[in-house]
Amino acid sequence: MQRCGGITGLALVLGLGLAGGQGAAFAADDSASTSRSAGQSASETPAAEAARARQAFSDKNPFAQPSSLAFHAPDFDKIDNDDFMPAIEAGMAQQSAAVDKIANNDAAPTFDNTIVALEKSDPLLSRVMPVFNALTGANTNKTLQHVEQVEAPRLAAHSDAIYLDDALFQRVAALHDKADQLDLDPESARLLHEYYDKFVHAGAKLSDADKTKLRDINKRLSSLSTAFTQKLLAANSDHAPIFVNKSALAGMSDDAIAGAAAAGADRHLDDQFVLSLQNTTQQPPLAQLDDRDTRETLYSASWNRAEHGGSDDTRDTIETIAKLRAEKASLLGYDNYAAYTLYDQMAKTPAKAEGFMQRLVGPAKASAKAEAADLQKLIDQSGKSFQLRPWDWNYYAEKLRKQRFDLDESEIKPYFELNNVLENGVFYAAHELYGLRFKERHDLPVYAPSVRVFTVYDADGSKLGLFYADYYKRDNKNGGAWMSNLVGQSKLLGTQPVIYNVANIDKPPKGKPTLLSYDDVVTLFHEFGHALNGFFADTEYPMLSGTATPRDFVEFPSQINEHWAIYPKVFDHYAKNYKTGKPMPEALKKKLLASVHFNQGYDMSELISAALLDMAWHTIPADAPKKQADAFQREALQKAGMYMPNLVPPRYRSSYFQHIWGNGYAAGYYAYLWTQMLADDGFTWFTENGGLTRENGDRFRRMILSIGNTRDLQKAYDAWRGRAPQIGPMLKNRGLAGHGSDDEPSDDAQASNDAS
Fold it and tell me: Of 90, 473, 546, 572, which cross-links 534 as Cys (Cβ 3.0–4.6 Å)?
């Protein structure tokens, strides 16, 4: 998973979900905290608490002034949990005053006194919110969660107060109506257009009565999104399976078992073993566990984590979110929430996004069924008498991988040591393509001891920004992997990027190396692709900078960067044994690369199922009754032709689908598939033009990575690629070619039309 940051300016407030775009915190152990901030009485209302916090803000608050550290990096040593609510409240008050001044300016509206003024209207919020959003994601605590609960609806109301301000909208509309007379440069013209669209999309043209309804819906949605994220975080921790007997973990490596023991010790469960839950349905240990009952226990813990009927059950929360989103879309004149969301995406309409996904259903499903038959045959040959189930899939897939390619994951992990992959793989590829250099530094405070900081140098030796790497799993860290900004790039504001990547890699016992799976390696390259998109941002205005792009484009830079993980020159530079320093033997490398497409039918099917499920939730009409989560999921997947509960469940069950309920990907999870098409098609351009070269990297940087949202991104892709994208490379790279008719040339041509 990733979360795309870089959103500052007024866009920081629009649609802000405190549960999304998150990162990390500095106070990992907050067990003494309650769900209330210090000093709050049990009878105090959120509004009263917020007012008290606002009055408590002073020049001594660490967010009162820009950080004096390099690149305005957060001074985590000086930031306390109790600094956030006063800073957020004061930030909203300051921005409200600035916006009121803009809206009621006696002077006629100009681009500078209205649009540029809005971009500059939130200096305090722009400092505190990226840090707060980071802190609540990777290392949260009860105090920060309480601040989320209080501030989420208040920030939603603050956003509405701006975007539903009629006087302010009239100034923006007046400029938009005469845009061709303003002699604006292309980026400024784009910004004006974006502001106008966002005001209209947010409800600026609604009647006063409908604006009141919308404000209520937005406040409720913001609170529910925060509640979902906090419930899920608790569910992941509360329902991780605990094993008393080490024998239940037979098949796992000694290091993995030691990690499970350490996880138990962290919970004060001496001599017990905890298998922490990742955010996806499938769990990594399922590929190693010999005992079928243990596998089923782990799988069931994952599948049912948020459906136990207690305080961390998310079903009613998501059912209500879906209903409210449908009502919001209807109020704003759309058939459903997906139509509302996709208005500014590359796909444009739910029908186009669903049509694209349906073209993948046949090949993916056929491939998955063929894989299932092979796995069942292996089970039968081993003398077992059971039918393949989801908790068996990865275990027998790993056996089949070893049989077919003579390859065992334990053989390849010693060649994927974390630090080596990062510095000699991820950073090396960035150097070869773009000339970047990285120097670790230890003089800047961090929010957790394992976080590393690097200065990033451009090819000419100038400093480009800072990179924070936070890769280890923590119980109070959201699942998945993501990128965001602590500081975003903007020429207008004079800021350079401070970017962080987050992952959830199991931390090994003390003194042991961190050895990665191949999937972990790809994740590091993926998230750094987002980071490059942020580092190379070269825009005037914060609203258009870096990763502030449509969801079905923002994953393109990250997914194309994955390809460099197995590019021969890059792979050979980092795939070295952590003990001997020797490169991976040629025979082993060939076996690994030959296995890259292995099990792709399953992988693609679970991804497509999740994307179709997301779209189904968000194409519910407003007049439909509230849905029951499990029944709706079953019916939606049956209708889409992807209901395979006994073989391939969706990558995320509705009840723990963090992307769509808490992370801003509502009706947008298809973007991972759409951008796979862009990335796979786009990488063929690199291979056709010399591969890993500075010339190619600089061209990609100039035409794609640096532009943010300053121009039409479909046209930008077509200009860089030399044509519209085609689906053929995706089918080939994902091992789906030959499993359906969609890989035929005539369909490639149609894919170009579909994606343009």
Answer: 546
- Residue 136 in any domain: the answer is yes
Residue at a domain's end among 561, 589, 617: 589
Rounded CA gap, 380 and 430, in Å? 47
Please state the pTM of the whole predicted model. Answer: 0.89
Compute the distance between CA of residue 87 and CA of residue 84 in angstroms, rounded to an integer. 5
Nearest Cα to 729, choosing from 535, 580, 560, 574? 560
CA–CA separation, 165 and 331 (whole Å): 17
Instruction: Classify 508 as helix, strand or coil.
Output: coil
Neighbour order of strands in the sheet with 498-505: 437-441, 452-457, 463-472, 498-505, 482-487
Instruction: Give residue 19's pLDDT band: very low, low, confident or very high (50, 70, 90).
Output: very low
Compute the mean pLDDT over every residue in the chain, rounded to the nearest whole number: 91
Check 327, 527, 540, 606 and give the catalytic one.
Answer: 527
Cβ neighbours of residue 394 closer than 8 Å, sequence gap 6 or more = 282, 286, 287
On the question of pLDDT at 18 being above 80, the answer is no
What does the alpha-carbon distance between residue 140 and residue 35 come to, in Å, rounded to a whole number? 12
Q: What is the DSSP string of 166-214?
A: HHHHHHHHHHHHTGGGS---HHHHHHHHHHHHHHHHHTTTS-HHHHHHH
Mean local confidence (pLDDT), 258-272: 91
Q: Does 713 reside within a domain?
A: no
Query: What's the sign of the alpha-carbon dihedral 712, 714, 720, 724?
Result: negative
Do 187 and 216 have their domain in common?
yes
Same domain, 374 and 463: no
Q: What is d(CA 499, CA 124) in angstroms, rounded to the nearest whole number?
A: 19
Residues 358 and 268 reside in one and the same domain = no
In 126-149, which positions are buried (b, 16+ CB within 10 angstroms) versus exposed (e)? bbbbbbbbbbbbbbbbbbbbbbbb
When pLDDT is averaged across residues 150-164 and rounded to a whole number, the result is 96
Is the model's pLDDT at 663 over the cut of 90? no
Q: Are 114 and 172 in contact (CB under 8 A)?
A: yes
- Kindly state the tokens that stand for 297: 């226990």
Distance set, CA 530 to CA 153, 157, 334, 468, 705 (Å): 29, 30, 31, 13, 9
The verdict on residue 221 lying in a domain is: yes
Task: Confirm if 152 and 225 have CB atoms less than 8 A apart.
Answer: yes
pLDDT cut 70: percent of the chain above it: 92
Q: What is the mean pLDDT of residues 254-270?
A: 91
Do 150 and 255 fall into the same domain?
no
395 plus 433 within the same structural domain? no
702 domain-assigned: no
pLDDT at position 608, please?
Answer: 98
* pLDDT exceeds cutoff 50 at 379: yes
Calculate mean pLDDT across residues 217-229: 96
Q: Which of 589, 619, 641 is the last residue of a domain?
A: 589
Confidence of residue 678 (pLDDT cuts 50, 70, 90): very high
- Predicted pLDDT of residue 43: 65
Catalytic (active site) residue 527: yes
Closest by CA to 477, choosing from 234, 227, 215, 753, is 234
> Quick one: 525 and 427 in the same domain?
yes
Rounded-to-integer distance, Cα 335 and Cα 5, Å: 29
DSSP letters, 706-755, are T-TTSS-HHHHHHHHHSS---SHHHHHHTT-TTSSGGGSHHHHHHHHHHH
Tokens of 255: 């290091």
Query: Between vectors from CA 216 to CA 2 and to CA 235, what angle results, nearest 5°?
Result: 40
Burial class (CB in 10 A: 0-12, 13-18, 19+), 446: buried
Same domain, 265 and 224: no
Structural domain of residue 676, as residue ranges?
Answer: 350-407+598-688+723-755
Amino acid at site 293: D
Number of structural domains (the chain) is 4
Q: Are residues 679 and 622 in the same domain?
A: yes
- For the chain, what is the total number of helices (H) and then of strands (E)? 29, 7
